[in-house]
Design the sequence.
């Protein structure tokens, strides 16, 4: 059957990836061991802390809106959320470089591209590299992969993709919608 | 403008939608045919139904040697996945088997082939957020797809335009939170909330999305390594990481 060839490709691709993942993990293990033997403590995964400080996405965006444009989410707010909805508002198209922001563990500076009044790509101009945590985060960076801040949009779509919502959630949502429809 | 005929039913414990752009032949019977097929899949593969073939096998009332051709196909696909993922994808659990993790994508792919064979050129079949979209929408344009926000299920965070593609998302929905490392004061590894995969076929896209999600942060690199597949990963710090060819699917006119 048709799926057979696809499956073969799937199997080959996964094997290929697992091999390269093994190489990467081995190297990472070696690097980590070097650091331990050099006297550094192993970074421990943190405990969830309700910190008031803002993270990469939210904080950096707030610092880079041009003064004439509507203010982006303030520090402490989340980056996600409806885009400015005032008619005719939105950001002016262009590329903006934000100020250098001291985030306690180093300096962060980002560059954002605004297209059609909405924030597009967000890139780091400066990123801390002298602390273990930031090194750890930087280790994920891949020159090919790109990143952007996640932001709610008002797009009109035919189909929605997302992790499976259980029928319970579906029914609850439907029920709520029907209740509203009854007015 | 041709009419989009769409129907959603609750099946396999999730909402399933079949939508066909009605060109000439009436879409109703085709949609009923697809749902009848999905019902037959449920009757055969549902572990909740005592009379299903999978339940008979799990009770030892049927040997897999005497199982249906569909069951043989699914069990063979499951075994391939198990080997390919070094045992991560395993339908066996506590002495029972449950292949529902791959049956959905497989059935959607089969349903799309059924509709193509019936002469349908513009349609989509979707189950629980995974789908195959073929041809164009009622406006004659590529199907407009939204990636659901993992932070607020009512929000769309990315608008795409796809045609003749399978799309699947694997993930979890939790409130986004920033976790700080108490030792350094820096951010810990942001948790991966969802990964969306676009490819030629929903069965593959579903399998790759599941595998990539299980790989954590490295999952997006895995998708990058696959020819013909693109991915969009969202983490708990509200940062999205996407593959080099993903931009080609972004609908810049629809934001």
Sequence:
């Amino acid at each position: 059957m048709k799926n057979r060839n696809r499956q073969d490709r799937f199997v080959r691709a996964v094997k290929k990836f697992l091999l390269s993942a093994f190489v990467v993990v081995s190297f990472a293990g070696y690097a980590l061991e070097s650091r331990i033997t050099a006297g550094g403590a192993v970074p421990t995964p943190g405990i969830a802390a309700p910190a008031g400080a803002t993270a990469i996405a939210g904080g950096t965006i707030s610092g880079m809106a041009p003064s004439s444009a509507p203010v982006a989410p303030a520090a402490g707010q989340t980056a996600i959320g409806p885009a400015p909805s005032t008619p005719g508002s939105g950001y002016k198209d262009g590329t903006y470089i934000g100020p250098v922001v001291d985030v306690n563990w180093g300096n962060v500076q980002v560059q954002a591209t605004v297209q059609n009044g909405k924030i597009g790509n967000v890139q780091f101009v400066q990123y801390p590299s002298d602390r273990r945590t930031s090194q750890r985060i930087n280790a994920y960076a891949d020159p090919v992969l790109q990143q952007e801040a996640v932001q709610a949009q008002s797009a009109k779509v035919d189909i929605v993709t997302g992790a499976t919502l259980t029928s319970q959630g579906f029914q609850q949502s439907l029920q709520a919608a029907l209740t509203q429809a009854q007015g | 403008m041709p009419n989009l005929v769409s129907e959603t039913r609750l099946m396999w414990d999730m909402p399933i939608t079949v939508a066909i752009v009605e060109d000439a032949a009436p879409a109703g019977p085709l949609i009923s045919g697809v749902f009848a097929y999905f019902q037959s899949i449920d009757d055969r593969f549902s572990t909740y139904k005592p009379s299903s073939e999978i339940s008979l096998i799990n009770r030892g009332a049927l040997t897999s040697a005497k199982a249906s051709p569909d069951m043989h196909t699914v069990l063979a696909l499951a075994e391939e996945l198990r080997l390919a993922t070094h045992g991560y994808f395993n339908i066996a659990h506590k002495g029972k088997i449950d292949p529902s993790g791959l049956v959905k994508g497989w059935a959607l792919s089969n349903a799309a082939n059924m509709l193509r064979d019936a002469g349908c050129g513009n349609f989509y079949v979707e189950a629980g957020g995974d789908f195959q979209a073929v041809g164009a929408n009622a406006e004659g344009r590529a199907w407009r797809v939204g990636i659901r926000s993992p932070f607020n299920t009512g929000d769309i965070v990315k608008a795409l335009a796809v045609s003749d593609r399978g799309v699947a998302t694997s993930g979890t929905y939790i409130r986004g939170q920033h976790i700080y490392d108490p030792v350094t004061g820096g951010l810990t590894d942001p948790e991966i909330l969802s990964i969306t995969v676009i490819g030629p076929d929903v069965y593959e896209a579903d399998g790759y999305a599941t595998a990539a999600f299980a790989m954590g942060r490295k999952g997006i690199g895995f998708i990058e390594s696959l020819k013909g597949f693109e991915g969009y990963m969202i983490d708990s710090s509200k940062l999205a990481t996407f593959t080099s060819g993903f931009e080609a699917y972004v609908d810049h006119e629809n934001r």
Notes: Residues 56 and 181 of chain B are 50 Å apart (CA to CA). Chain B has two domains: 1-140, 142-255.
